[in-house]
Amino acid sequence: MNPFLCLLKREYWEHRGGFLWAPVWTAGIFLVLSLMGMVVGEVGARRAGVQVNGVRLGDLTSHMSAEDLAQFGAGVDMALFSLSGIIAIVLFFVLFFYLIGALYDDRRDRSVLFWKSLPVSDTQTVLSKVATATLVAPAIAVIAAIGLMLGFLVLVSLFAALHGVNPVTTIWMASSPLSVAAKLVLLIPINALWALPCIGWLLLVSAYAKRAPFLIATLVPVFAGVLVSWFDLMQGIHLPDVSFWKNVVARLLFSVAPGSWMDMTQLRTLEHANGPQDLVGLLSLSSLAEVLTRPGLWIGAVAGAAMIAAAIAMRRRRDDS
């Protein structure tokens, strides 16, 4: 059997709770809470006798124009992307703490001696952890996110049907759930490239630290950012340059979060100015292709690859420390 494939299976089975059950339980709990909220809202509305001027929702939606349906469908798509963000937050914490302990835990419990006795190189071991963080765990999270989105659409469809709304034409045909799911899959390699600085940094710290890898991984970039800002302030009374915090500190600590490559300033501007169709446009194929042309993406990827290589060399030297 392929040794690298065995290493990937090892990573999955040792961390199945974080990789599999964390996103699955998150999706399940959110769906249950959504169902409970709908039931509470329905019961409360019926007890209070709430109506929309005596007009059924089905009558309102039947008079929606094509433009209204397009806007509504874009809003549904944006809601689906937002749901995937819940899984993305869980994935960020899972990957951050997984990478912090990826090489440190083996040395702490001395199991590194056992793994060193196997016909597997240090390069294969470290790269299996990189592949797990960039491909395996995100793929499982995407599957969980798609399940969450489809489950939520089913709940909304049932709620709409109870109020005389045709969910097929109003929800499923107006929105693009398959397109949203496909884009989540396409985001996996983009997120992987963007996350390489964080992955490389955390693995390097995990290979180097004798104790408290979390403190080393977080305090070193933050202290470097404070020093850079302090030197900026010493040059004159002006606001310090935040580019170091954005391009170095944030990339080292948070780029493993899915979607952290997005331009948050542009996102907030569109959210308040142009509506859901433009928000969904941020995740169009052309916008995703534009991300691959950013120099910062590739500079960070090269820096991340260099730190991964350093982590491999560090593990080779510190096998029993």
Topology:
Blueprint (H helix, E strand, L loop, with lengths): L2 H12 L1 H33 L8 H6 L3 H36 L2 H5 L3 H5 L5 H41 L4 H6 L4 H32 L4 H22 L8 H12 L9 H10 L2 H6 L3 H7 L3 H23 L4
Please write the string of helix (H) and strand (E) elements: HHHHHHHHHHHHHHH
Low-confidence stretches: none
Shape: globular
**Global structural class:** mainly alpha
Kindly report the average pLDDT value.
83
- How much strand content do the residues show? under 5%
The tally of beta strands, per DSSP, is 0
Number of helices: 15
Descriptive keywords:
321 residues, mainly alpha, 15 helices, globular
Fold and architecture overview:
It is built from 15 helices and no strands. It is an all-alpha fold and 321 residues long. Helix 4 packs parallel to helix 9, helix 7 packs across helix 15 and helix 9 packs across helix 15. The mean pLDDT is 83.
Can you describe this structure in just a few lines?
The protein is mainly α and about 325 residues long. Helix content is about 80%, strand content about 0%. The longest helix is centred in the middle third of the chain and has 41 residues, at about 120-160.
